[in-house]
Amino acid sequence: MDYMIGVDIGTTSVKTVLFDNAGKVQGYSNNLYPLYQDVPDMAEEDPEEIFSAMVDGLTTVLRKANLSAGELKGVSFSAAMHSLILLDEDHKPLTRAITWADNRAVKYADELRENGVGKQIYEKTGTPIHPMTPFTKLIWLRNEHKDLFDKARWFVGIKEYIIYKLFGVLKEDYSIANATGMFNIFKMDWDDQALELAGVSRDQLPELADTTDKLSGMNPDYARVIGIDPDTPFVMGASDGPLANLGVNAIDPGVVAVTIGTSGAVRVVTDKPKIDPKGRVFCYYLAPNKWVVGGPVNNGGIVFRWVRDQLFAPEKITAEQMKIDSYDLLTEIASKVPAGSDGLIFHPFLGGERAPIWDANARGSFFGLTRTHTRAHMVRAALEGIVYNLYTVMIALEEVVGKPVSIQATGGFARSALWRQMLADIFEQDVTIPETVEGTALGAAVLGMYSLGLIDDLSDVKQFVGATNVHHPNPETFEAYRALVPIYIRLSRQLQTEYKAIADYQRNQDAKKKASDEL
Fold it and tell me: Which segments constitute the Carbohydrate kinase FGGY C-terminal domain (predicted)?
């Protein structure tokens, strides 16, 4: 039998998944690493810890699988977008990997959005202006850490660093490059204006490659540790968002992928790049004639975790004692509250927000609280608020690519029947839950299969993806959600004028506390 490995280099772990030629999981490893947040707005990871996790994952999966010679046809990469690592002349890291969640470039993102230059860049790159991007991170580093910036010979992301360590070449696929905010999606090359603003030159960036390009000739020392033939082909692969669409069979026109994990996203595939005149959605490359248009949100399951830990600590302890899932207990509590939470609205912006408002200063809030509301209302309002926010992304997406035909929904939220139904009710669309559990890794593997000629077309992914649940919208909830969603949207717009003020206050308080702690 033929096998393919998908390696998903994520924000919190590397998932290494072995698939057979029927798309079934035959091996799995999930290797974690820490996120460093030493100062406010920081979100960094150690590139060596990520590389070690990747090596450990491949080693574990291959040893357990004990494949015969020639059965492993290849390995293909997925990686989280927007990471940035500064390297010296010898390709040694001068920084940790600065992740998408790092907001320290917020000042420069705000300036670009306000002076109109950001809109010019977005219209060429398809990447909204936000502190998540390497583009804004480079401007921040050049202005506030010039000595460090000037020491750098290379500017790369985590996937490029791993590829260099394994193969000794600096290459960056179009999909990851697209997400830097410095890649012109109409010329398929680095954008001169963006590079000038960032203060970097082409020869400081990796060589560009298609997502289907192949690598071989792995460093023999690493090949020996992993237990892999050094000539095994590795496929460049793409970024995690586009590959998640592929992995859940959401690549046909009008088929939308909605993901709620720690964060979330709404995405659809088109045959050519599309730009939103209002700058609310991204456009990222997947493969030839496949572009993914959509919007990511910072606040998905991480909000549910906050509700559990901060508002339902006693129930969390009770669930642990009863050996039941604490989230299942909370959704059971939320299910006793009617749709719309009796007029309680929650804006889930606990970590700033990306789509559709692209405001790193955004903050969360409950609106409409009365004496009649309980914690049960609050947990349901939080779940609804996450979906309201995704629905506002869908509204923007519809203006760019048209109405969805169907929705494929994935992520940790899919374990909750209540949350799945909530998605169908608020979107007023049928929601299908694909059978696959590791959609991004499967997407990487399928792209690898296509690159290596093991399948004829990316649409062959439909052979590998079944369905576990289909939820139909419940008309009894329409009245409540149709009344509340417009209020949610109007509030978001009105509060945006105050988000920066409260965020600046909080940052000042954090700085004062840090200074006090150091005395």
Answer: 257-451
